[in-house]
Specification:
3-stranded parallel sheet, 17 helices, 11 strands, single chain, 4-stranded parallel sheet, alpha/beta, about 45% helix
Length: about 400
């Protein structure tokens, strides 16, 4: 019998009926198990998964009402509400058939209504727009298109506020699972949960390591993932794809024994690194306009626009909080502006004090741009003096000004 053959449970109190159905179903390629009583049906459902149940309604000799089978249906539903049940009996009356259909049809209608309501919510919650025109974001877009349709686990990394959840939703939308909901879990709060056997470890770590411990207890086998529902001892195989987003350096966490190495490699089939906003400055003006339209519409101000000075300030800001900081900055401006033009004072950007700006972790090109701006500011726009401060010739500084798009 093939491993992927449909798994059928046949329940009847007559051995010859069970033998005949087993032979018939096996010849058609079905994997069949049998049960001779309601108790045996429930025992098998507790320990195994089936694709369909063929259920006889009568089990006690000289009983033809079908009540035993009808009483069994709610118990089956409680164990596995998704299991299709085909009712069969040699003594069935119209009344018993109608009752069995009523039970199953009522369950099906309620489930259909619930699914339709969920689908309506999903359709209303469209995939967020991914604005990525900059050269730095092109590798991200290519990976989304290439990896999205697969079932591969993806590790999405980047600084806080870079848009990791947006990328996760785009990956999900591109996949064959896109018509189903994307279940998001904020593992940062798992330390608040009572996890027997895990609590002592949780107190020693912070951040995304909580995810490690949570999955560590469930286990991540090499085969199909398995889990147990809360309150049940029955192990079930599940078909899931894991998209993990973190701003933690997991390689370093593995090296420091804060993150399990085997789990890291299972989550990291493909890694997508999202660059910080300071490395994708071509996107700032487009993102700002996008957020201005969203917040303007939200607060009844769709006619708002940026002044040239405000846009220049947005382009020059280092954005340590990345896209999230930009979105909040624009929303604040919409609330603060009194006319139809957002100006610098409405943005509320806090400029770093002279000499206080830290350049650790800043890309070389951006650091050079910052230092040139500071030198020009100190020398009130005098290129010769700024060049002397920077140890450059006047012509070399002009070339750098042109490359960075800076104006004296």
């Amino acid at each position: 019998m093939k491993d992927d053959a449909p798994h059928v449970l046949v329940a009847d109190d007559q051995p010859d009926v069970l033998a005949a159905l087993r032979l018939l179903l096996r010849s058609e390629g079905f994997d069949t198990q049998t049960a001779a009583s309601p108790a045996e049906v429930l025992e098998l459902l507790e320990v195994d998964d089936f694709d369909v149940l063929l259920l006889d309604l009568n089990y006690t000799r000289d009983t033809t009402s079908g009540q035993e089978g009808l009483d069994l249906l709610p118990k089956i539903q409680a164990l596995d509400g998704t299991l299709p049940v085909i009712v069969m009996t040699a003594w069935g009356s119209i009344a018993s058939a109608v009752e069995a259909m009523r039970l199953e049809l009522g369950r099906a209608v309620r489930k259909a209504q619930l699914l339709e309501a969920e689908n309506e919510m999903l359709r209303a919650d469209d995939v967020p727009e991914l604005i990525a025109d900059s050269r730095a974001m092109q590798p991200v877009l290519r990976l989304i298109e290439r990896v999205g349709p697969s079932d591969a686990n993806v590790l999405i990394t980047g600084e806080p506020g870079t848009g990791k959840e947006v990328v996760a939703r785009w990956l999900h939308a591109r996949s064959n699972r896109g018509y189903r909901p994307l279940v998001t879990v904020n593992t940062g709060g798992l330390y608040r949960l009572h996890c027997p056997g895990v609590g002592d470890q949780l107190r020693h770590v912070v951040g995304p390591e909580h995810l490690v411990l949570g999955l560590q207890q469930l286990g991540l086998p090499d085969g199909p993932p398995e889990l147990q529902r809360v309150g049940s001892s029955k192990t079930r195989k599940v078909d899931v794809r894991v998209l993990t987003a973190t701003n933690t350096d997991l390689e370093r966490a593995v090296a420091d024994s804060l993150f399990r190495e085997d789990l890291y490699y299972r989550l990291n089939t493909v890694e997508i690194r999202i660059p910080p906003l300071r490395d994708r400055r071509e996107d700032i003006s487009v993102l700002a306009a996008h957020f201005l339209l969203i917040s303007g519409t939200k607060y009844g101000r769709p006619e708002l626009k940026f002044s040239a000075a405000a846009m220049d300030s947005l382009l020059r800001h280092p954005w340590p909080g990345n896209v999230r900081e930009l979105r909040h900055c624009v929303e604040r401006a919409v609330l603060m502006v009194e006319n139809n033009t957002v100006d610098v004072e409405h943005l509320g950007l806090r400029q770093a004090a002279e000499g206080s700006l830290r350049l650790e972790g800043v890309p070389l090109d951006e650091a050079e741009r910052i230092l040139i701006r500071k030198a020009l500011s100190r020398n009130r726009g005098n290129v010769s003096r700024a060049a002397d401060d920077l140890g450059l010739s006047r012509s070399a500084l002009y070339r750098r000004l042109k490359r960075h798009g800076l104006h004296v």
